[in-house]
Structure formats: structure tokens, C-alpha cells
Specification:
The complex is a heterodimer of chains A (about 130) and B (about 270).
Chain A lengths: L1 H7 L18 E4 L2 E4 L13 E2 L12 H8 L9 H14 L5 H7 L11 H12 L3
Antiparallel strand pairs in A: 1-2, 1-3
Chain B lengths: L5 E3 L4 H11 L3 E4 L5 H6 L7 E4 L9 E3 L5 E4 L4 H6 L1 H6 L1 H8 L4 H4 L4 H6 L8 H6 L3 E5 L5 E4 L4 E3 L2 E2 L6 E7 L7 E7 L10 E8 L2 E7 L6 E2 L3 E2 L5 H11 L10 H21 L1
Parallel strand pairs in B: 1-3, 2-3
Antiparallel strand pairs in B: 4-5, 5-10, 6-7, 6-10, 8-9, 11-12, 12-13, 13-14, 13-15
Helix pairs in contact in B: 9-10
The chains are: A mainly alpha (about 130), B alpha+beta (about 270).
Bound molecules: FE2/S2 (inorganic) cluster (2 copies).
Chain lengths: ~130, ~270
């Protein structure tokens, strides 16, 4: 599925880091649940809906989470960012007011080799402040 | 790169049976795929036929029977176990263990049955299911069979299934409902890595059951203890007699043994304070 999305459909946000379910760079939402697309066959996704970070931009506007990533410098090289956003977005949809521990748990399957995670956690946390 | 294979997604159990029967040896059952696809990518296995069981609706359910037993279907994911109310309330050790398996997105695909079928000595769900006296419900052409999970593991990553058999569900008997239980695991990092060792424990009607993972070629269920005789020393001694850990990239065998002792002690203390 990762190959299909990236190579055939040119949805370039979906990245291969490890190809073995470790790094989370390939994370997409399948029927609104984050999954590792590198461990799913494209054919298994038949009849499902897939959300990637491309779909988070609405009418040319970044989502609140994306804005917060920008503001908090939660992106450096950007390789982990699409997957990270999908994991974090899914958390916020399940639980609009997560605490720090819950944030860490939700992104434990997404490796970031640049930021040291602090900015990412801050970025996610900032969005929760505006949540009802 | 993956090898070429034919993919089937049966919608009923009888269709599944028929496929398994006609393709036999070259077949792999696909549920979550979180282990199988890695093995295929690494060339460890190259099945000619993949049979996806996610199309069979009964297999996606967690069912509580009227007697209070639960059965977990072949395509139930770890996160579905974690979110299940009945399991949280009455069989919480399964939730505890499932939470330690991989990452959130991995648990959205990884299945309990897949974890068991791969028969890894480190399988997170194995220990808790062993101490809860779980039964494996096997499907085959002659009406199926049920065996105790402890008889299911027969060697390193080997289970007892014949080529034309598959696991439909795993059942935890009502007898173990609300049993006091616990699971402890040590690993180099949280998630993303196989454990160094793990211990699961449960007390039920005067019996103490203990299982140890990553310390032998299969997960190991120790012989039952009569609870009133089971002092820490006694249980540790029995564990040491029944496991045979190796040293590998994750840990030395001495460290594994040490941590098993520590976990037994902690779990016993936790159990006694209840
Ligand atoms: S590429 Fe899928 S988890 Fe690393
Ligand atoms: S920003 Fe570079 S890996 Fe996360």
C-alpha cells in the first residue's frame, strides 16, 4: 500500500523509513485509524477510505494541528512530519484533551531523528488548549 | 520486494475451509499482516497464496457467552481488546499485555490470534492467555477441534496446526473471570522491540498460575501451584527449573533469569496486597 500510494498515486507525503512497522513515517489513516501503510497490502485497503496529510489541508488552509507544528518548530527535516501529523490528528479526534503521557503514547510509533520530540509534543499540546 | 502471490478474501468460513484445503502447503493466512508482511519482505517466507480472513464477519468479534467466557475472533486487533469493556473489567491482564505490544498504529492491525499463531517465545499475548487457561479453537475439514493453548506451542515459532488447519478464535473460560492477575515485561525500549522477558500471573480459586516469556523456545506455563504453598522462593525455583534462556542481542541469559525473579517477586507482592 505504501508503494502504491507513493509511487503509483504520487502521494508523496507517505514515506518509507524502515518498511517494517518500526518508524511510523508511512503512517496513514485507514477508515480513520492510524496504521503503518508499509505493512498493509494495497488490495487489503479495497473499500476503505485512506487519509493522508494532503487531505488535512482544507481550501488551501492548514489544519490547526499543522499550524501549530509550524508555529512550534515541530518540523525540521520533515521526514517524520506527515506520519506524525496523522498519529497526532487521530489522537485529537479520539481524545481532544490528552495529557502529556497520552500524547507520548500516541506518537510512540513515530520516530523523529531531528526535533527531540519536545517541539512536537508542545505543538500537539497547544492545539488541545483551544479544544472544548 | 514481495514475491508474487494470489490473494483471496473469503467472506464465509466454508469458503475459507475450501481455499485452505485446495492450496495447502503454499498458503499463509493473513490477518493483521504485521508479522507476515515483514517475513515476506525479508524473504523468510514466500507463500504462493495469501488468504485474508478479515472478510469473515464472525472473526472480527469479541463475544461474551452467557456463561461469562469470552472468545476473541481471528481478526480482532490488539486495540480492539484494549477498548473492549468486558475484557477490561473481567480479564484486565489481557489489556495490560496488549498495551505493551508495538505502537498504537501497529496495534490497530496486529491481531491477538496472529500473535499466538506466530508462536514467538516473546509473544506478548501468550503469557496472559496461558495463565487464563485459554483454549484455541481450530478450524479444519473434519469439524474442527479445541486444544489448550499450552499444548499449541511446540517449538521455536512452531505451532501445532496442520497445513489444512487455521485458528478461528481463542476462548478464555468463565472460570478465570475476575481472577487476580498481572503482567510484567522488560524491554530495551517501550514498544518497537521484542521483550527481554515477561511474566504473567493469575490466582484463581486457590491455584496460582505463572507463565514466562522469552526464556525458552516457546512461552512457558509453569505447573500450577497450590496458592497457600507458593512462597516467592518456591515459585522462583520452579520457574528456574522450567526455563532455559539464551544470551542474544537484547540481553544475557543471566539478566533474563534475574528479571524473571524480580517480576515474580513483584507480581506475588502485588497479588498478596489485594
Ligand atoms: S516505513 Fe512503515 S513503519 Fe517505517
Ligand atoms: S523532523 Fe526530521 S525526523 Fe522528524
Amino acid at each position: 500500500m505504501l508503494e502504491f500510494l507513493h509511487d503509483d498515486l504520487a502521494i508523496l507525503s507517505v514515506k518509507e523509513g524502515c518498511g517494517e512497522g518500526e518508524c511510523g513515517a508511512c503512517t496513514v489513516m485507514l477508515d480513520n485509524k492510524p496504521v503503518n501503510s508499509c505493512l498493509i497490502l494495497a488490495v487489503e485497503a479495497d473499500g476503505t477510505s485512506i487519509r493522508t496529510v494532503e487531505g488535512e489541508v482544507k481550501d488551501g488552509k492548514l489544519s490547526p494541528l499543522q499550524e501549530s507544528f509550524k508555529k512550534n518548530h515541530a518540523t525540521q527535516c520533515g521526514f517524520c512530519t506527515p506520519g506524525m501529523i496523522m498519529s497526532a490528528q487521530s489522537l485529537l479526534e479520539r481524545n481532544p484533551k490528552p495529557n502529556e503521557e497520552e500524547i507520548k503514547e500516541a506518537i510512540e510509533g513515530n520516530f523523529c531523528r531531528c526535533t527531540g520530540y519536545r517541539q512536537i509534543i508542545d505543538a500537539i499540546f497547544e492545539v488541545t488548549k483551544n479544544a472544548k | 520486494m514481495l514475491n508474487h502471490f494470489t490473494y483471496f478474501k473469503p467472506q464465509t468460513e466454508s469458503e475459507l475451509l475450501e481455499k485452505v484445503k485446495s492450496y495447502g502447503d503454499d498458503t499463509k493466512i493473513l490477518a493483521g499482516g504485521t508479522d507476515l508482511l515483514i517475513y515476506m519482505k525479508q524473504g523468510i517466507t514466500a507463500p504462493k497464496v495469501l488468504i485474508d480472513v478479515k472478510g469473515i464477519s464472525e472473526y472480527s468479534k469479541i463475544v461474551t457467552a452467557s456463561d461469562g467466557s469470552i472468545s476473541i475472533g481471528a481478526s480482532v486487533t490488539c486495540n480492539e481488546v484494549i477498548e473492549n469493556e468486558c475484557i477490561n473489567k473481567h480479564f484486565p491482564v489481557l489489556v495490560e499485555a496488549a498495551k505493551t505490544l508495538g505502537s498504537y498504529q501497529l496495534r490497530n492491525r496486529a491481531t491477538v490470534i496472529g500473535n499466538i499463531c506466530n508462536a514467538s517465545p516473546a509473544a506478548d499475548m501468550a503469557g496472559p492467555l496461558l495463565v487464563l487457561g485459554a483454549l484455541v479453537i481450530i478450524g479444519n475439514d473434519s469439524g474442527g477441534r479445541e486444544i489448550l493453548l499450552k499444548d499449541f506451542f511446540i517449538g521455536f515459532k512452531k505451532n501445532i496446526l496442520k497445513v489444512d488447519e487455521f485458528v478461528k478464535a481463542i476462548k478464555v473460560p468463565a472460570y478465570f473471570r475476575d481472577a487476580k492477575s498481572g503482567y510484567l515485561k522488560s524491554s530495551r525500549i517501550k514498544g518497537h522491540d521484542l521483550g527481554i522477558c515477561n511474566v504473567a500471573m493469575c490466582r484463581v480459586n486457590g491455584t496460582l498460575k505463572v507463565a514466562v516469556g522469552s526464556c525458552a523456545v516457546t512461552p512457558v506455563l509453569l505447573p500450577d501451584f497450590e496458592s497457600d504453598r507458593a512462597g516467592t522462593k518456591f515459585v522462583i525455583e520452579a520457574a528456574m527449573n522450567n526455563i532455559n534462556p539464551i544470551s542474544d542481542i537484547r540481553s544475557s541469559k543471566e539478566y533474563r533469569k534475574h528479571m524473571v525473579k524480580v517480576f515474580i517477586k513483584r507480581l506475588l507482592e502485588k497479588g498478596n496486597s489485594h
